[in-house]
Amino acid sequence: VIPLEEARRHVLERVAPLAPARVPLAAARGLVLAEAVTAPADVPPFPNTAMDGYAVRAADTAGASDAAPVRLPVVAEVAAGHPASRALAPGEAMRIFTGAPMPDGADAVVMVEATARLDAGAAVAIGIEVTPGLHVRGAGDDLRAGEVVFEPGQVLTPSHVGVLANVGAAEVRVVPRPRVGVLSTGDELVVPGRPLGPGQIHDSNRPMLLALVAEAGFEPVDLGLVADDESRIAAALTDGASTCDALLSSGGVSMGDLDLVKVVLDRLGEMRWMQLAIRPAKPFAFGLVGDRPTPVFGLPGNPVSSLVSFELLARPALRRLAGHPDDALVRQSVAAVAGERLGRRPDGKVHFARVRLRPGEDGRFVATSAGAQGSHQLTAVARADGLAVLPDGDGVDPGQPVEVLPLGP
Ligand code: AMP
Ligand code: MG
Fold first, then answer.
1. Model pTM?
2. Ligand 1 proximity of 250 Cβ (cutoff 6 Å)
3. CA geometry: angle at 92 spanning 86 and 94, to 5°?
4. Can you tell me which atom of ligand 1 is nearest the CA of 203?
5. pLDDT one-digit tens code per residue, 166-182
6. Separation CA 129–CA 148 (nearest Å)
7. E strand or H helix at 221, and its extent?
8. What is the distance in A from the centroid of ligand 1 to the CA of 251?
């Protein structure tokens, strides 16, 4: 029996980021940048107006007020995408619309609310005095040409995608999204939607793991439900290993005679079978299968155990495949206090109790049990906000501090 940290280290030492590739911007969200991005030109590329109004020389508005407006001839209209065809001369105004380039010669914009149209638009009355630069967005005042915008390792969010578009990048070099194959094994399993025969249960792990994979930002690949049959399990794992970047199987990794995933994986790859000093999710297997080779996670069959192993072991390793930096692989726990007794018995293991969190008065969360804690009782996981880390011992009394690993996106 080994500590969780040792198993995690073993796994992380054996996975490396996928080879970077260029992807179109539309596919970049959530991926990790594999290059530094530099702005090739100023953003915005030219000075432009932040307001609808009149482009002027600020000096021409000297002394203007509501009571004594300055009258200027309007010599042109400048709209976004349509620069003025000539410069603004002293004593002139141009009608200008938000985003339009500032005409040469103009140095300020009078917002339309401070003006009155005269002579059917041929002239304007300006009721305020403006200073140079007013309502002008300078070239490069967001990004300067040559400026490093993002560093490698940056996770691309929607706003990063927007900035990349701003600097004219149609493609970006990233670590590709890992394709993660998921299969379930077990003669007792039936796909949801089919009626249950005697002794049968629904396959909950596969839909759940596919959803966990997607939620974590990877591409889920459904490798199906496989019977307890050596050759079928071997075929599913071999196919999966050749088409996916990683595989998650659930079930068949305990010590029973029918634990055929264990038998097959031992034949196909270099596996390590572990018993972890945690509860739930004690049995866990990891290895490399095929020529590429493909990392394979043998998760336990009990659904709660499957989810907990995914969270504690598979997710960090898949994040490494996806190029996330070392300090961003494992979830950070949040500090909470027990809102009731979170009981357990000493057994040499760390327990992960499914808990709900609510905000407490001192800024810490208050953790209470999310329901029945059996490793087959998935409902409490669905109701939980996180996994409370209960070190070996008698549990945590009300009011005592407890660390909680958040679940979810
Ligand atoms: P195993 O590790 O295959 O012996 O499975 C341990 C327990 O988990 C048994 O009660 C199985 O019926 C159950 N189990 C295995 N796979 C799944 C699954 N995909 N969905 C729901 N329960 C499962
Ligand atoms: Mg089984």
1. 0.93
2. yes
3. 60
4. 20
5. 999 999 999 999 999 99
6. 39
7. strand 219-226
8. 5
